[in-house]
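Re: that backbone. Tokens:
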């Protein structure tokens, strides 16, 4: 959802909600988006109750989930939804015809290539506005899913088990899905509009009614004394997430108007405010831009939970957890004391996708390559590349500082508290500085902002990287295979 700069009624989707859009003064494409997600939420409750795995065969659940998903994307995006169907069918053709040794390469090239062409065409050819809610969002999610599945099929059928990491081995797909399973995974109504990306094996287990049992087995639940556990209800988790969604929407409608991004290029900000004022105001503006993401991602999570998908196990108190598909942890984001911790809790499922298809697999400079893939996936606006190119040195510098100094502050609670307060402030300001181009999008305002900030975090990050030694740390990349993991422990 984009900032509400004023009513706009252009949309390629249905216009039946135009009167409501006019009454609210909200762009029609945003009204359609929210309406589709509310419909999906209601459909999810119906799906869980009346099409429970105990009452309906997996084929019926797959078919209904797919048909509802197709209806939603056509309602929301009209003929532009054809882009989603074209990409799905092209990648299905690759899955059926390509060898397992190349299926991941071909799927990745086609999916990312088609997504990039669509990003370029909607901006420079079709003149889509910067702040519209359009078909590119669902296309980005489908790109994640088709590439994730292709890599997991390659892991399951094209690689030796001993060459896989523990996680790759767990998620490897050893039988190619049928057309119905493929369409259901990519186009189901629960995630086709706003995601999130999920693993194919988890989704099929959910459709077949094995999802919860599978999670409990992974936790060795019988060994923990949970010999009989009724099927957990997601109702509490859904209500909690809907409350967060409502608060996020209210904050979005109020804070965004009070602290618009355009303030960062005002004459007062650029030429008259002092450096500390600019830094604090930048933080406030970036905080005001977050609720729209909190709203969209939390609502998407609630939709999946309402359908019974997203169970991740039980905690130490025996309470059910429904965060398997969660895209963010708001508390950990707002209290993060390191760049790494912030990124780990923001857009979680996209981070998991980047790790699956890129970070674990490229042989050189995985951090740089992963940041560049993330920028390309988001689109072709220059601001994305400013953000991710800035993120590379900031991430490396934050890692160097943490690995070299953090252990000196763990000897007492007072020192640890001081360290946490200082690193929290630095982290939040560094993230605001790094992410600002992401919401400004264009080159000129980005350069204007960074000039007014004297390229502060760029310079500091580069100095830290040059001065501090690079220390290996236990949070470095995980071993590539089960064999390497065994060697490390021997």
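Recovered sequence:
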């Amino acid at each position: 959802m984009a900032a509400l700069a004023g009513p706009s009624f252009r949309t390629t989707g249905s216009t039946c909600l135009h009167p409501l859009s006019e009454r609210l003064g909200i762009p029609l494409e945003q009204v359609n988006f929210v309406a589709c997600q509310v419909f999906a939420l209601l459909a999810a409750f119906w799906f869980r109750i009346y099409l429970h795995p105990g009452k309906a065969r997996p084929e019926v659940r797959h078919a209904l989930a797919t048909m509802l998903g197709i209806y939603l994307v056509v309602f929301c995006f009209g003929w532009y939804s054809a882009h989603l169907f074209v990409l799905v069918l092209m990648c299905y053709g690759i899955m059926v015809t390509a060898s397992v040794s190349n299926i991941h390469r071909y799927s990745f090239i086609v999916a990312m290539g088609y997504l990039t062409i669509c990003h370029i065409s909607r901006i420079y050819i079709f003149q889509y506005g910067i702040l519209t809610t359009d078909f590119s969002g669902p296309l980005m999610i489908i790109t994640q899913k088709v590439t994730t599945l292709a890599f997991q099929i390659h892991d399951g059928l094209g690689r030796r088990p001993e060459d896989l990491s523990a996680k790759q081995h767990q998620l490897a797909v050893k039988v190619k899905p049928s057309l119905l399973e493929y369409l259901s995974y990519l186009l189901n109504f629960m995630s086709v509009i706003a995601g999130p990306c999920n693993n194919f094996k988890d989704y099929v287990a959910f459709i077949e009614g094995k999802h919860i049992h599978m999670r409990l087995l992974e936790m060795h639940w019988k060994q923990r004394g949970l010999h009989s556990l009724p099927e957990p209800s997601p109702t509490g988790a859904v209500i909690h997430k809907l409350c967060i969604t409502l608060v996020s929407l209210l904050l979005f409608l109020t804070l965004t108007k009070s602290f618009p991004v355009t303030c960062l290029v005002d004459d007062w900000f650029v030429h008259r405010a002092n450096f500390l004022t600019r830094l604090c105001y930048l933080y406030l503006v970036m905080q005001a831009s977050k609720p729209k993401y909190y709203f969209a991602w939390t609502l998407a999570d609630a939709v999946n939970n309402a359908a019974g998908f997203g169970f991740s196990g039980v905690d130490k108190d025996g309470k059910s957890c429904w965060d398997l598909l969660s895209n963010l942890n708001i508390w950990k984001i707002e209290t993060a004391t390191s760049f790494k911790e912030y990124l780990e809790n923001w857009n979680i499922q996209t981070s998991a996708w980047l790790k699956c298809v890129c970070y674990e697999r490229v042989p050189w400079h995985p951090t740089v390559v992963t940041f560049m893939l993330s920028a390309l996936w988001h689109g072709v606006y220059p601001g994305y590349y400013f953000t991710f190119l800035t993120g590379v040195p900031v991430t490396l510098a934050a890692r160097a500082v943490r690995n070299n100094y953090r252990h000196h502050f763990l000897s007492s609670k007072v020192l640890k508290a001081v360290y946490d307060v200082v690193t929290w402030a630095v982290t939040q300001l560094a993230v605001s500085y790094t992410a600002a181009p992401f919401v400004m999008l264009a080159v000129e305002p980005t350069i204007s902002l960074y000039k007014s900030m004297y390229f502060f975090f760029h310079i500091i990050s580069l100095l830290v990287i040059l001065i501090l030694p690079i220390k290996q740390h236990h949070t470095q990349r995980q071993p590539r295979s089960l064999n390497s993991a065994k060697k490390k422990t021997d």
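The chain is about 65% helix and 0% strand. The first helix runs from residue 18 to 24.
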